Amino acid sequence: MQTGGWSDADCYRVACDCHDHDHDLDVWIEIESDPKVKDVTVTLYKELYSPVWEPGFNRFREALRLLFTGTTRVAGSIIMQRDVAQNFVNTVQRSIDRLDQTK
User: ∠ at Cα 45 (41, 46), nearest 5°?
Assistant: First the structure.
């Protein structure tokens, strides 16, 4: 479902098929405004899961990895029925088509 829209960006909320709102995905599809770089930017906002409090997870080692590399591992998934996935693809295609129209 579309939650916002501007001339160069659209915002959507993609609901997970499991009906848990924590699994929903907020998507921004933006058309790059720089005339030299004609790109479509898809930004996904999702709260991701980290096993930091699970037994056997080494929080100290993970803290050191984050401190020295600036990275950590997280995972997230969204379940989409075929029609929802097709709508997502169609939305990205519309952004590409808008980008082609600005040439």
Answer: 145
> Measured between alpha carbons, how far is 30 from 44 in angstroms, rounded to an integer?
11
CA quadruple 33, 34, 39, 43: dihedral positive or negative?
A: negative
Distances (CA, A) of 50 to 40, 62, 80: 29, 11, 22
Element (H, E) at 97: helix 82-101
Q: Name the strand (E) or helix (H) holding 103.
A: none
Q: Cα dist. 85→15, 45, 57, 82, 94 in Å? A: 11, 17, 34, 5, 14
Domain map (residue ranges) of the chain:
2-81
21-71 pLDDT, tens digit each: 777 777 777 766 566 777 777 777 776 667 777 788 888 888 898 899 998
